[in-house]
Design a protein that fits this description.
It is a single chain. The protein starts with 7 loop residues before the first strand and ends in a 7-residue tail after the last strand. It contains 9 helices and 7 strands; from the N terminus they run E-H-E-H-E-H-E-H-E-H-H-E-H-H-H-E. The chain has one domain: NAD(P)-binding Rossmann-like Domain (Rossmann fold, 3-Layer(aba) Sandwich), CATH 3.40.50.720. Helix content is 48%, strand content 15%. By secondary structure, the chain is of the alpha/beta class. It is globular, with a radius of gyration of 17 Å. The structure holds acetoacetyl-coenzyme A. Acetoacetyl-coenzyme A binds next to helix 5, helix 7 and helix 8.
Length: 248
């Protein structure tokens, strides 16, 4: 590792609630943060908002479900900025509904964006991380991948799949200075959670022992920890951060 340069962190799905908090926290920690997005219009507004808050992120567009597009994004980043030290696989969507009514389209969309994306992004950074004997890969999963959730067969499958991926890759790259870990947030105050009908959401919150939704900055704090150089003995782990909603 060349310790004279800023470490580079790529955060996928940067313009969402968790992504925003993660980008800000890693920038505060001194990383050169690259913010990936898919929706250009939303990203432009986000960039302006971030500038207003004192953050000037490098932004790169790619649909994380598209292997070729991700490859191009990562090679552009490597050429213009340098190799990626930290990859945060954060991009994700929901298409909730009972399984008996779930369309193939809603199954495919969630698996593609939430799980294929992990393959696509990680596959394109892993060899350079191995060559450089350093890397941090952090997969943002969900409590609903750990325990299941009515109406989320697609999402729970993808999120559980992420941790299976984490466990295997952690073993494969452990000798190369690369750690691979999963974070499984519970219900956090993001647009994704606020899109759940109020009545349903209130019932879910009533089942969280801590008695509230989590804050995005609480997840970002854990990402910051796992992204640090000091956590080299933590790999293949799944960190639950859910206010006690799922204890096992
Ligand atoms: N257990 C048992 N039955 C339930 C239930 C539950 N938890 N929730 C709903 N039902 C039942 C209702 O009582 C109703 O039954 P009846 O038909 O007998 O009245 C039926 O299911 C609902 O039928 P709908 O046709 O309205 O259901 P739907 O197929 O449209 O799906 C739903 C409903 C959209 C899934 C709704 O239940 C819901 O929004 N659930 C919450 C899903 C959720 O938590 N999503 C998390 C999003 S945030 C996120 O994913 C981030 C993260 O990582 C945590």
């Amino acid at each position: 590792m060349d310790t004279n340069r800023k470490y580079v962190a790529l955060v996928t799905g940067a313009t969402g609630g968790l992504g925003t908090a993660i980008c800000k926290r890693l920038a505060d920690d001194g990383f050169h943060v690259i913010a990936n997005y898919n929706n250009k219009e939303k990203a432009e507004k986000w960039r302006e908002k971030m500038k207003g808050e004192g953050y000037d992120f490098d932004m790169h567009q790619a649909d994380v479900g598209d292997f070729e597009a991700v490859g191009k994004m990562i090679s552009d980043i490597e050429q213009s900025i340098g190799p990626i030290d930290v990859l945060v696989n954060n991009a994700g969507i929901t298409r909730d509904g009972q399984f008996r009514k779930m369309s193939k389209e809603n199954w495919d969309a969630v698996i593609r964006t939430n799980l294929d994306s992990v393959f696509n992004c990680t596959r394109h950074v892993i060899n350079q991380m191995m060559d450089r004997n350093y890397g941090r890969i952090i997969n943002i999963s969900s409590v609903n991948g750990q325990r299941g959730q009515f109406g989320q067969a697609n999402y729970s499958a993808a999120k559980a799949g992420m941790h299976g991926f984490t466990k295997t890759l952690a073993m494969e790259v452990a000798r190369k200075g690369i750690t691979v870990n999963t974070i499984s947030p519970g219900y956090i105050a993001t647009d994704m959670v606020m899109a759940v009908a109020e009545e349903v959401r209130n019932k879910i919150v009533s089942e969280i022992p801590v008695g509230r939704l989590g804050g995005t900055e609480e997840i970002a704090h854990l990402v910051s920890f796992l992204a640090s150089k000091e956590t080299s003995f933590i790999t293949g782990a799944n960190y639950a951060i859910n206010g006690g909603q799922h204890v096992y």
